[in-house]
Design goal:
The protein contains 11 helices and 12 strands. The protein has a single domain, classed as TIM Barrel. The relative contact order is 0.14. The strands form 2 sheets. An 8-stranded parallel beta barrel has the order 1-4-5-8-9-10-11-12, surrounded by 7 helices. A two-stranded antiparallel ribbon has the order 6-7. By secondary structure, it is an alpha/beta fold. Ligand PBG binds next to helix 6.
């Protein structure tokens, strides 16, 4: 035998040398949840190790995140029902918890890149990512709300805005609003191929943001489609997106690879709440080695072509 591939696997040093993909803390964006109140940290039941923090506690927790060298966080707000309405007005109200949180984090940890979430659902009494009219999610009127939200977040200090709503034309609309207000340096990470997925369940528990009726299939993508992801990505690229994201990650590695092979801007992948919950639940039962499964999953996401990984494992990985 002339070719013996096992020669390159025979020792840890050779394996390290020929390793093609190495995940580092630099790749991560750590999603975090902020809620009202003082001195509060409540664990999300379906996401062991992940907490919703009041702002004071979040700022404390960020000291460790910062020390661990995690370069970026994605922040999501949990709102009480009485702050929600049809038009998500709380999303762009001066002095709202979310905007205050962005400003406070930026002030205390200026080197952490803050990615904000641009979508109506945490603020919507309908639990949808767009304005609901007669049972339909309407597109163009929603863009106006998204523009106000993105601008308010940029003003508060967000470095990257992340439209996660899947409305048509939102990247271009937001880019124009930001540029006209002078925020030409605020980046856009487009949730380009965001699928209508069952893997978001634990996240909706964390934020109480499940749709009050129906599902999100008229705006999020059908899990069966990959060519459609190219259509979405082409639009987002043309509209000025700085990053293209695929979400979820593990069941969509082919989509990550497709975008990676077709676009020369960084590809991101969102290793979502349900993917985290599955590993944690199995590990708690002793059915999987949680740490090894985490490393293997993150490596696979990067190998598929994601340079940036949004993951609830960021801190655990950084602590290894
Ligand atoms: C909604 C949004 C969702 C997530 C991020 N932003 C859920 C949804 O579309 O219902 C999910 C993240 C996760 O599951 O970790 N704009």
């Amino acid at each position: 035998m002339l070719r013996r591939p096992r020669r390159n696997r025979q020792s840890a040093s050779i394996r390290a040398m020929v390793e093609e993909t190495t995940v580092t803390v630099n790749d991560f964006i750590y999603p975090m949840f902020v809620m009202e109140g003082n001195n509060l940290a409540t664990e999300v039941k379906s996401m062991p190790g992940i907490f919703r923090y009041s702002l004071d506690k979040l700022l404390e927790e960020l000291a460790q995140v910062s020390d661990l060298g995690i370069p970026s966080i994605a922040l999501f707000p949990q709102l009480p029902e009485e702050k929600k309405d049809k038009y998500a007005t709380e999303s762009h109200r001066t002095g709202s918890l979310y905007l205050e949180a962005i400003a406070a984090i930026k002030h205390k940890y200026p080197h952490i890149a803050i990615m904000s979430d641009v979508a109506m659902d945490p603020y919507s009494s309908d639990g949808h990512d767009g304005i609901v009219e007669n049972g339909t999610i309407i597109n163009d009127e929603t863009l106006v709300v998204l523009g106000k939200m993105a601008l308010a977040q940029a003003q508060a200090g967000a470095d990257i805005v992340g439209p996660s709503d899947m409305m048509d034309g939102r990247v271009g609309y937001i880019r124009q609003v930001l540029d006209e207000a002078g925020y030409t340096n605020v980046a856009i990470m487009a949730y380009s191929a965001k699928y209508a997925s069952a893997f978001y369940g634990p996240f909706r528990d964390a934020l109480d943001s499940a749709p009050k009726f129906g599902d999100k299939k008229t705006y999020q993508m059908n899990p069966a489609n990959v060519r459609e992801a190219l259509v979405e990505a082409e639009l987002d690229y043309a509209e000025g997106a700085d990053f293209l994201m695929v979400k979820p990650a593990l069941a969509y590695l082919d989509v990550i690879k497709t975008l990676h092979d077709n676009f020369n801007i960084p590809i991101a992948a969102y290793n979502v709440s349900g993917e985290y919950a599955m590993v944690k639940a199995a590990a708690q039962h002793g059915w999987l080695d949680g740490t090894k499964t985490m490393i293997e999953s993150l490596t696979a996401i990067k190998r598929a072509g994601a340079k940036v990984i949004l993951t609830y494992f960021a801190k655990e990985f950084a602590l290894l």
